[in-house]
Amino acid sequence: MPKIIRDGSIVDDEWILLDEDVPGDQQPHTIVPLSDWLSRGRKPAPDTDVGVWLNSDEDPRLIVDDLADIALIALNFPVFSDGRPYSSATLLRRVHAYQGELRAVGDVRRDQMEQMHRCGFNAYQLAEGQDLTAALAGFKLFSHSYQSSIDRPQPLFRIR
C-alpha cells in the first residue's frame, strides 16, 4: 500500500483514484475526477467516502455547494512551477471553510510542503523519488513565519 504524509505522520494511503479515461464504480475511499463527480449527480455512492480530484486549471468553486459530501479534495500540481493549487487550497479553507482532507498530489516536492501547509493542505502524496521521512522533517525547519496564513491567522508582528 502506498504511503503519504497526513496530519504530520507517514500513513498508508487507503484511497483509490478512478481514472478519467476508465470510469468505474465508487469503492469506499474513492477519489474521482471533477468531471466524474459532476456527471454522477454530485452525490457519493451509499456507504462510501468520496474524494474529488481537481486539476490546477479546474475551478474549486464548482464543488463548494457539495463540500459537506466530499471527504477529501486532491489538488493536482502538474508541474513544480504551477502554483494555482495554492490559491485553490486557500480559497477552500479560508473562504469556504472546508474541513475535510486537502491533499497535494502530482509533482509535490519537499521544498513546497511548508508553504502548502500554510495554505491549508494537511496531506501530501509526494512525487516519485521523494523521501517521505526527509520531507516530514522539513516541517521543523521554520519555527515562525512573518505573514498570516491558514495555520496562523495573526501575522508575527501582532503576536509579539
Give a structural overview.
The chain has 160 residues and is α/β, with parallel strands linked by helices. 24% of the residues lie in helices and 21% in strands. The chain has one domain: Alpha-Beta Barrel (TIM Barrel), CATH 3.20.20. The protein has 5 helices and 8 strands, in the order ββββαββαβαβαα. The chain has an 8-stranded mixed beta sheet. α3 links the parallel β7 and β8 (123-124). The chain starts with a strand and ends with a helix. The model has no long low-confidence stretch (mean pLDDT 85).
Strand order of the largest sheet: 2-1-8-7-6-5-4-3
Report the C-alpha radius of gyration, rounded. 16 Å
CATH class: Alpha Beta
Query: What distance separates the N and C termini?
Result: 45 Å
pLDDT averaged residue by residue: 85
Contiguous low-pLDDT stretches (5 residues minimum) are none
User: What is the H-and-E element order?
Assistant: EEEEHEEHEHEHH
**Number of discrete helical segments:** 5
Main β-sheet: number of strands, strand sense, barrel status?
A: 8 strands, mixed
Helix percentage range: 10-25%
